[in-house]
């Protein structure tokens, strides 16, 4: 029994020595700092890479968005709804303007009554 306790303490102490830390650079990218004084960029998910492609800072908070528009944009751009980030929206009862980041590309949509129309000039192929 004493052997297992000592082995457990030894293994838990090893993990304390081999720790890494994460940091955020001034431009919002996450970096993994290793204990051997090396580092590399960390991409936790696709959406994090979209944040950096759209130049959104680490403290960016996504707008709640319009789920009907999110579904329409996903269909039009052949992507998942989770690949769409609402950057800014100005919405009224029958109108609205929406700025989105879709898979790392900026897009603008306009709402007229119950329809959404893409209004930016740089349409994706």
Automatic annotation (TrEMBL):
Which InterPro entries does the protein's record reference? Calycin, DUF3157
Q: Which residues form a coiled coil?
A: none
* Origin: domain of life: Bacteria
* Keywords, comma-separated and alphabetical: Signal
Pfam families from the entry? DUF3157
Entry annotated with the keyword NAD: no
Name used for this protein in its record: DUF3157 family protein
UniProt keyword Acetylation, yes or no: no
Question: Would you indicate the residue range of the signal peptide?
Answer: 1-18
